[in-house]
Amino acid sequence: MSLHAIVLTLNEEKHLERCLRSIAAACDSILVVDSGSSDRTVEIAGRFGATVLVNPFVNHATQLNFAIASLRGRGGWLLRIDADEVLLDAPDAVRAALARMPDDVDGLLVRRRLHFMNRPMRWGGMDPIWQLRIWREGRGICEQRWMDEHVIVEGRVAKSPLRIDDINLNSLGWWTEKHNWYAAREAIDILAHRHGVFAIQSVSRSSGLDQVVLKRALKNNLYLKLGGGARALLYFFYRYVFRLGFLDGREGWYFHVLQGFWYRTLVDAKIIEIETFAARNGVPLADAIRACTGLDPRPADAAIKCEQFDDCAQRA
Q: Phi/psi of residue 53, each to 5°?
């Protein structure tokens, strides 16, 4: 059974060789979808025999669906892996895991472990994180969201023994800039859910992504009901104290303060900024989002119209 990898890139020369080296022997082909890198990313991909396609970036969901469409008809399985991630399992173990899957299984959950400041985050609800990273070609598509997008598959989802480590080598300054970038996109998703002014797609309980469904249900029905000033602090307390995040030492403290408190506070501040701009200027929410973030929440090429997605959504 063949395996085809998808890697989304933008200026990933620092990480890409390590990533491709970890998957090259296990994969029959590698597709790199690049957003216009100005460094050696494309050169490195070529050294590993990867096919490189350049596609303008809207969001990760649109980019991933472009990759899925580009691989249509290949058969076998598709693997999504980020450039700063490493597949830990040997090629024989990967092939054996795929060969054991029953015919009704269309998606595989992979255990992902995040590293922060050179330390794996094992506590605070960060391990295990199960993500659907492998699915049968032609049986899955990515939900259209600005943040926290997941692949939806038609059939059953099963856990696999496969493991991915996320080990980003960039500076803390880069990390904070990236999360500022993420915060604007998450604010759009929250506003879309709150006001229903533009559609986002979501996995359903029958999709097999129980961890994702539970987290989103708690976020939409509990977390977002709390006051903006308190919920980030309560979320930090939950992760750092109740889920024992403090056991990850100094690095765990900085991670949960930054990712669990600062980031969530930044998202809330951006929501307030956008809603206040819309109210004060008497403009639609979409116009306020464009003015405050520079993002178009309804770009024409982000509205994926795909019969494959419609089929998956109906079955999910």
A: -120, 135
